[in-house]
Amino acid sequence: MSDRPQIKDFDWTLLAIVAAINVLGLLEIYSSTHASAMAGMQWKQLIWLGVGIVVMFIMSQIDYHTLLDQAPVLYIAGVAGLLVVAVIGYSRLGAKRWISLGGGFNLQVSELMKLIIIIVLARYFSEVRTDKLTLTDICKVSLLTLIPVALILKQPDLGTAMVLVPVLIVGMFLAGIEWKHLAVGLVLVALLIPVAWNMRNHLKPYQQQRIETFLHPEEDQRGAGYQILQSEIAVGSGGFWGKGFGKGSQNQLGFVPVRYSDFILAALAEEQGFIGVCLVLLLYLGLILRLVDNAQKAKDRAGMYVVMGVAAILGFHVLVNASMVIGYMPVTGIPLPLMSYGGSSIAFVFLALGMVMNVRLRRFVN
Amino acid sequence: MASWNVNDQKIPQERLALVSYLSVGLVIVLMVGFWKLQVVQSGHFLDLAEKNRVRSIPIIAPRGAMLDREGRVLVDSYPSFSILLLRDDPKNLEKSLPQIEDGLAISDQELRQELDAAKYEPKFQPVVIKPAASQADIAFVESHRADIPLLELLMVQRRRYQNNEMLANTIGYVGEVSQQQMDDSDGHYRPGDIVGKAGLERQYNDQLEGTDGMRRVVVNSVGKVMRTLDNVEAVPGKPIQLTIDYDLQAIAEADMADKEGAVVAMDGRTGEILAMVSKPTFDPNDFAVRIPSAEWQKLNSDPETPLLNRAIQAQLAPGSVFKIVTATAMLETNAIPDTQTFYCPGSAVFYGRMFKCYIYGKGAHGAVDLHKAIVQSCDVYFYNVGKILGIDRISEYAKGLGLGRRTGIDLPSEEPGLMPSEEWVEKAFHRKWYAGETISVAIGQGAVTTTPIQLARMIDAVASGGLLVEPHLQKNMPNLKPDHFPLSDATVEKVTDGMYGVVNEGGTAAQVKLQNVEFCGKSGTAQIINYDLRSRLGKTKEFKDNAWFVGYAPRRNPEIVVAVLVQGGGHGGITSAPIARDIVKAYYDKKAAHTQQTAGTQTPKSTATDAPLVATVGGQRP
User: Domain B246-282+308-599 sits in which CATH superfamily?
Assistant: First the structure.
C-alpha cells in the first residue's frame, strides 16, 4: 500500500459510465446543431470535456481533508462572491449571474457555490459525533445552506438555488435526522407551500410565467408553454424506437428549445426513442449507484458526505431536467449533467467527480 | 489530520442503501413518464409534430377571364404580390418597424393598427401589411432580406377590370368570402378566399373560379421554408365569353357618362345583351385588392346607389312606354277598333277627377285614333282606352308581355317590378281597386313599375309577334327557353306602325330619325310625383321626370332593341331617344362595315347581307 494515490485506483467503472454519457451527449449535440449556424458545437464541448478531465485529475490530488479544513474560508469566499455578483456582476437574459474574468470568460459563482456547499456541509456533518442530529444542528445547517440559496434566488436563478437543497436533505438524512424532526420538517414544508403560492407575486415575471405555464401549458402556445409543449411533442413523437439519428423533425427544425443544452434529452428522446431514453436513464442510475458504492467504501464519514453531496446534486439535476422535458416540472434552466452543452456545467461536474475520486483514492490511506 | 476529523464513526450503510433504492424508484418513475409520452401517446404527438413541420401553402388559381362577344378581354387576372410581416420575433419586429414603414411608405399608425388587429391570432401567422405591392415595394423586400428577415412575399392572383368603370354594375366585383358563404360551402372555401360578390362575377363564380393548388412544405420553427414535399398545381378558372359588344358598350357608356340611369341593348331575336349600362357606377378594381372600410361605407351609403345595377334593379314607372301594352291589350281583346277616335281637349274628367294630357296648357290633340295616339303619345286617348279595358285586362297583357316579373337574365338580384291588379290590391292593401287608378296605369303611371330590361323585352315581344326572348349575357348559352305570348299579326302591324311613326312621322322622337334604318320606338316621360304636388314644390332635380325611350330596328322582328332610362332627364324623346339612336346607328354601321369586308374577301356567291356580324373567339368566319 502506497501513500501516493495511484491512477489505477481511480473508479474506472464510474468513469466508463461518465464517458458513455459524454459520447451520447456529443452525438446529440452534433445531431442538433450540425445543420445550423451553430454547427461544430460538439468540438467546443469536447474541449470542455478535456479541460474537465484535467480539472478532475487536479481535484483528485488535493486531499479532501485539506479542502474540508478550509471549509469556513471557502464558505465566506463563496458568499462574498455571490454578493459581488449582486453588485458588479453583469446581466444576461435578465439575470445577474456572471462575473467577467476577461477574455470572454465569465465565472458563474453559483456553480462554484455548489461545490462549496458540498464541502461545508460535509465538514459540518462529520463534526456531529452522534448518530442523532439535534434540532440545533438542523437549524445551523439549514441556515448555512439557506444563505447562499437566498443570494442565488436573488440573481434570480431558481434552478441553481434549488440544487443546493438536496445536499442538505441527503446530508441530514445520512447524519441521522430523527423521524419526528423529519415529520415536522415535512409538515412545515407542506404549510409553506400555500405561503409560497401567495408569495408568487414576488417572483420575477418570467418565473411566474414558468409556473403558470407549467400548470397550463396549452394556453400559451408560443410563449413559455410553447417550450414545454414542443419538448413533449419531440419526446412523444419519438415513439419506442425513435426517428433515427439526425432525423427528428422537432429537433432538426428547431422546434425543441435549446435542444443542445437544457432540452438535449428531448432531442435524444425524439431521435433515439424510448429505448435511447432508457439507456440514458440507466446510465445515470448506474452513475448514482456507483457514487453510493464509493460513499459506502469511504474511509470516513467526511468522505461519505462529500461523495453523497455530489450524488445528491447530480441526481437532482437528472431528476429535474428529465421531469421538465416530459412536462412534469416547470422550466428551471437546470442542464442535464455530462450531456448538456456548456462549460460551466461540465467544469462543475468534473470538479465534483474529482472530489469523488479524491475520496476513493484515500480510502486505504491512513 | 485535522482535529475535527476523528475517524470513530461508522458509515451508515443502511441509510445509504435506502438512498440507492430511492434512486432506482425515481428512475422507474421517470421511465413510466417517458413511456406514457413515447409509447402510450406517441401517435398523438407524432401528429402534432407533423403539423409543426408541414405547412400547406395554397397556390391560388387565377379566375377565368371575361371576354366580349368578339373575344376582347374585359376582365382578367394577373399575379401580384402581397407583403407579409412575420411576427415570431417581437423584439426584432419592434426594431425594424421604422425601417419597414419608411421603405414601404406605410404610416406607423396604419401598421400598428394591422398588428393590433391580429394581436390574438397565433404569433406564427403573418400579417398582410401591403396587399398589392408595387415593383418598388418588391424590390425593397428583396434587397433587405438579410437585415429585415421579417418581410415575406406572397404571390396571389388579382382581378383586373381592363376598362375600370365600364360595364361595372353588370360584371360586379370580387371580394373575400364571407363567413356565411364559408359556412354554406361545406369546407370548399377558406378564410381569405376570393369569390364573386356581385354581378357576373357572382353568377358565374363556379365557372370562373379555378381549383387552387397546394404546395406542402417543410418549415422550421420560425416558419422558414426548408424544402418542398409535394406540389399540386392550380387549375385556372374557365373564361366566359359575353354577348356584350365592346363597341356598343363604349358608345352607351359615353352617352351616359354624366347621367343617372341605365341602358340595355339587346339582340331582339336571341335575347343576347349587347350593352348594359348603369350610372352612376364604381370601379371594381377598387374591390380587387382590399377595399378600405371608409370607401365601402361611402359606396354603400351614397344616395345615388352606385352599386345598384339600374338596368335590372331600377323599378320605376314606365310612363308612356306602357301605352304600347295598353294598345296591344285594346287590339287583342277587340275592345275598341283602332280607327275609333277619342277627342283630346288637353284633359279629361273620369270618376269626378280631372286627368291632364301632357299637352295641357300648350294646346290639344283634338280627334285622336290609335296611330296618332301612339305617335303623339296622347294621354287622353289612353285614359279612355284604360277606362273601357279595365285593370285586369291591362294587367293580363302587361304580365303576358313580361312586366311585373323577372326576365330571368343571368344576373343575380334582378328585381321583378310591379304590375298591379285588383287581386294584388286586395292582397297587399286589403282594399278594393279604385277605378280611377286604372286611368293612371293605362299611361304607365300609378302603381305600375318596371325595370329597363323588362321594357326592352316587352317592346321586342310586341314587335316580334309575341316572342319573349330570354335576356342573357353569356354567349352560346345553352337551354334558352323563349316564352310565347302570341299576338295577332294585325295587332303587331298597327302597333309597330305607331312606333315607326314616333320616330319617322314627326312623333315624340322625330329628331332621332336614321337614314336607311327602320328605327322605331316609344318614348316615356314618367312623373315621379304628380303634377299638382310638383307645381307646389317647384322644379328641383329631385322631382324632374324620368326620361324613357325604348327604340328598336327594324320595324318588325327587331334585330336590336335599346331601352334607355335617364333619371330626372325630362322628356324621353329628347333626352333618351338620341342615346338609343346612337347605339342602333353604331350597330348598323358596324354591320355594314362587316358586310363590306366580307363581300371584299369572299366570292360574290357567298355574300350574304345577314351574315353573322362577328365571329366568336376561335371560331371560323363563314
Answer: DD-peptidase/beta-lactamase superfamily (3.40.710.10)
Whether A277 sits inside 8 A of B31 (CB atoms) is: yes
Q: Provide the ipTM.
A: 0.91
Q: Which residues pair with B230 in a beta bridge?
A: B216
Res A124: pLDDT: 93
Question: Which of A69, A233, A256 to mutate to probe the B interface, most B CBs <10 Å?
Answer: A233
**Dihedral of the CA atoms B119, B120, B125, B131 (nearest 10)?**
-50
Q: Position B544: which residue type?
A: K
pLDDT tens digits for range A255-272 = 888 888 899 999 999 999
CA pair distance A33, A53, nearest whole angstrom: 24
Chain A contact probe: residue of B3, B9, B21 with most A CBs at under 10 A: B9
Measured between beta carbons, the chain A residues lying within 8 angstroms of B220 are 253-255
In the block, cell 291591362 appears at B394
Q: Chain B, 75-94: which have a CB under 8 Å from a chain A CB? A: 88
Instruction: Give the gap in angstroms from C-alpha A289 to the nearest C-alpha of chain B.
Output: 6
- From the number of C-beta atoms within 10 Å of its C-beta (0-12, 13-18, 19+), residue B301 rates as exposed
pLDDT digits (tens, 9 = 90+) for B90-148: 777 788 888 888 888 888 888 888 787 777 666 666 777 887 788 888 888 888 876 77
SS3 B586: helix
Chain A CB contacts of B15 under 8 Å are 173-174, 176
Residues of each domain in chain B carrying CATH 3.40.710.10: 246-282+308-599
> What percent helix, strand, coil does chain A show, rounded to 5?
70, 5, 25
With an 8 Å Cβ cutoff, are A322 and B122 in contact? no
Q: Are A273 and A312 in contact (CB under 8 A)?
A: no
Under an 8 A CB cutoff, do B42 and A131 touch? no
- Could you tell me which residues are beta bridge partners of residue B356? B347
DSSP string, B375-434: HHT-HHHHHHHHHHH-HHHHHHHHHHTTTTS----SSTT----B---HHHHHHHHSSPPP
**Does the pLDDT value for residue A222 go beyond 70?**
no
Which of A243, A313, A228, A318 is CA-nearest to residue A274? Answer: A243
The answer to whether residues A80 and A113 touch, using CB atoms and an 8 Å cutoff, is no
Question: Could you say which residues from 43 to 62 on chain B have a Cβ atom under 8 Å away from some Cβ of chain A?
Answer: 44-46, 48-50, 52-53
Whether A235 sits inside 8 A of B45 (CB atoms) is yes
DSSP for A282-323 reads HHHHHHHHHHHHHHHT-SSHHHHHHHHHHHHHHHHHHHHHHH
* Residue B242 bridge partners (DSSP): B474
Say if the Cβ atoms of A239 and B124 lie within 8 Å. no
Q: Which of B11, B123, B226 sits opposite A253 (nearest CB)?
A: B226
First to last CA, chain A: 10
pLDDT for the residue B535: 54
User: Kind of pairing, strands A90-92 and A95-102?
Assistant: antiparallel
Closest-CA residue to B321 (of B434, B460, B424, B470): B460
| Stated pTM of the model | 0.67
User: The C-alpha cell of B402 is what?
Assistant: 313580361
Q: What single-letter amino acid sits at B49?
A: A
For the cut 50, the answer to whether the pLDDT of residue B611 exceeds it is no
CA atoms within 13 A on the CB side of B151: 26
Instruction: Say if the Cβ atoms of B5 and A126 lie within 8 Å.
Output: yes
CATH no., domain B55-241: 3.90.1310.10
- The residues of chain B that CATH labels 3.90.1310.10 are 55-241
Question: Is B38 in Cβ contact with A236 (below 8 Å)?
Answer: yes
pLDDT at A101: 65
